[in-house]
């Protein structure tokens, strides 16, 4: 993973993000003559974070939500989309088939947000997941709760109705004697 950015599951890679200025991860536009980074904002500590932050510095001047959106759209989403398209659409609704893809996407969005020191989850991430649900999972059936059989409902309703008069009678009989014992 030297000249490419490794994705969460380490099985796929993507070429580094390039801005219109020709910037890529092998050159740091925000480095001084010694090679030390001179970012104008705080950034995460990993080398991957420095790549993201350098890109944000070059393209946007800061670690903005626009930069976060750009990185997630070019790094996190393509892997998820491609992996989902490899599945049959009938498999999209089977959690065992999509949970690792979904988890990898969630981890990727969290890592990018953490690198840029943007709180996670945030509105951008939530909107992205809503869009993904609308695109891939809208046809999935939901498990709806149904009413229990009438016999069970009857038993659950009649039990307290019968117990209340018996308890009231017991209290009245105990207090009628006046001694309060027994």
UniProtKB/TrEMBL annotation:
Cellular compartments per GO CC: cell surface; plasma membrane; receptor complex
Membrane topology, record value: Single-pass type I membrane protein
Pfam families per UniProt: RAMP (PF04901)
Protein's cellular compartments: Cell membrane
Coiled coil start-end: none
Provenance organism: Iconisemion striatum
Residue stretches spanning the membrane: 151-173
Family the UniProt entry places it in: Belongs to the RAMP family.
Record carries keyword Chaperone: no
InterPro entries in UniProt: RAMP, RAMP_sf
Keywords for this protein: Cell membrane, Disulfide bond, Membrane, Receptor, Signal, Transmembrane, Transmembrane helix, Transport
Protein name: Receptor (G protein-coupled) activity modifying protein 2
Gene3D superfamilies with a match to the protein in the record: Receptor activity modifying family
One GO process term, biological-process aspect: cellular response to hormone stimulus
Entry superkingdom: Eukaryota
Main location: membrane
One example GO MF annotation: coreceptor activity
Signal sequence, start to end: none
């Amino acid at each position: 993973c030297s000249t490419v950015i490794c994705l969460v599951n380490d099985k796929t890679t993507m070429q580094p993000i390039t801005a219109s200025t020709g910037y890529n991860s092998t050159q740091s536009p925000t480095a001084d003559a010694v090679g030390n980074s001179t970012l104008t904002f705080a950034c995460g500590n990993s080398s991957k974070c420095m790549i993201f932050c350098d890109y944000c510095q070059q393209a946007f001047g800061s670690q903005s939500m626009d930069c976060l959106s750009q990185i997630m759209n070019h790094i996190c989403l393509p892997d998820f989309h491609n992996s989902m398209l490899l599945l049959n659409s009938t498999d999209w609704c089977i959690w065992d088939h999509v949970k690792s893809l979904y988890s990898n996407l969630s981890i990727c969005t969290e890592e990018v947000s953490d690198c840029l020191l943007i709180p996670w989850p945030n509105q951008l991430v939530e909107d992205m997941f809503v869009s993904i649900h609308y695109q891939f999972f809208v046809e999935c059936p939901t498990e709806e709760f149904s009413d229990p059989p009438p016999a069970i409902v009857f038993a659950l309703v009649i039990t307290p109705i019968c117990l209340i008069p018996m308890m009231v009678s017991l209290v009245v009989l105990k207090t009628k004697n006046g001694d309060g014992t027994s």
